[in-house]
Amino acid sequence: MRIETYGQQIEVTPALRDYVENKLARLERHCEQPFEVRTQLSLDKPNHRAKATITIAGRTLHADAAAIDMYAAIDLLSDKLDRLLREHRSKVVDHHRGESAARSESFG
Hints:
By secondary structure, the chain is an alpha+beta fold. It is built from three helices and four strands, in the order E-H-E-E-E-H-H. The protein has helices spanning about 15-25, 70-90, 100-105, and strands at about 1-10, 35-45, 45-55, 60-65. The chain has a four-stranded mixed beta sheet with strand order 1-2-3-4, with helices on one face.
C-alpha cells in the first residue's frame, strides 16, 4: 500500500503525516493486492477536512470527512475508508469458483 499525503492551503507536518499513515495502515487487512491512497488535508473554516481516493484494481473509491479538529477528521476518514473497502471486498466475487444453480443440479 502506498499512501500519499498532501495539503491544500495547509502545511502537512511530519506528525500529521505519521498519524495518517498509522490510521490508514489498517486498510491493508482488507486487500491482498497493492493499492494506492491519495489523502488531501485542507482547512474549510471553521472545520478541518480530510479527503482520500483509493485506486484498487481499476476501481476508484472516494471518501471525505470534516470535523473541528484535523485528527478527528482523519479518524472519521479512516472509518469511512474501512467501510468502503469492506463493501468493495464483499462485492468482489471469484467467478471461477462460484457455486451456481446449474452446477449444483445433477442431471441423470
